[in-house]
């Protein structure tokens, strides 16, 4: 199951799993999953919709063995201008939504005695970013969540990891001005933004048998932007 899989990183992840021949369920709020994926409507801020999404995926494909919690939003503004709603909406989607997904996924994974949980965080959650107090807090929180789950669920063969992308060519970064994009690239040792497929490659690795002994890890895919963090 890949949440937020209709565009950007989520879509690239879903397509990567489909290319491997996996049964893929994609949740979105508005539809538009890649061809070949089970297209499920789900708002991760609604517990009932989360439960219904898993029930639909299980009915079609059996127990969810891999969860990629990718759905996320931004409400960027300076802290003095940030409203309670700006804070609450981002935390509810990015952090609390991921918790609900992991809690529900763990039920079947515990019965199977295996599973992979991958949270999509951000370099911003490690470095911080002016104007993104809410987003950075939500993405940083995923690290603590994953490491706690790694300790709690590891004895049942379940891994929990975090991928922390840097700046990626997606709709979320397309709104930046050319000057902003140029400034970002100057900070990145590799001198460019990432392709969504490069993030997907790290996630499919963490979901693979080859990553069976990797848990509680934070994997940066950021061109070197966050080195040391």
Automatic annotation (TrEMBL):
EC number(s) from the headed UniProt entry: 1.1.1.100
One Pfam family recorded for the sequence: adh_short_C2
Keywords: Fatty acid biosynthesis, Fatty acid metabolism, Lipid biosynthesis, Lipid metabolism, NADP, Oxidoreductase
Entry coiled-coil feature ranges: none
Organism: Nocardioides yefusunii
Pathway the protein contributes to: Lipid metabolism; fatty acid biosynthesis
PROSITE patterns for the chain: ADH_SHORT
Gene Ontology MF annotations: 3-oxoacyl-[acyl-carrier-protein] reductase (NADPH) activity
Entry's family note: Belongs to the short-chain dehydrogenases/reductases (SDR) family.
Protein name in the entry: 3-oxoacyl-[acyl-carrier-protein] reductase
Function comment: Catalyzes the NADPH-dependent reduction of beta-ketoacyl-ACP substrates to beta-hydroxyacyl-ACP products, the first reductive step in the elongation cycle of fatty acid biosynthesis.
Catalytic activities: a (3R)-hydroxyacyl-[ACP] + NADP(+) = a 3-oxoacyl-[ACP] + NADPH + H(+)
Alphabetical list of InterPro entries matching this protein: 3oxo_ACP_reduc, KR_dom, NAD(P)-bd_dom_sf, Sc_DH/Rdtase_CS, SDR_fam
Keyword Lipid metabolism: yes
Keyword GTP-binding: no
Name of the gene: fabG
Span of domain Ketoreductase: 1-171
Cited NCBIfam families: 3oxo_ACP_reduc, PRK12826.1-2
Oligomer status and interactors: Homotetramer.
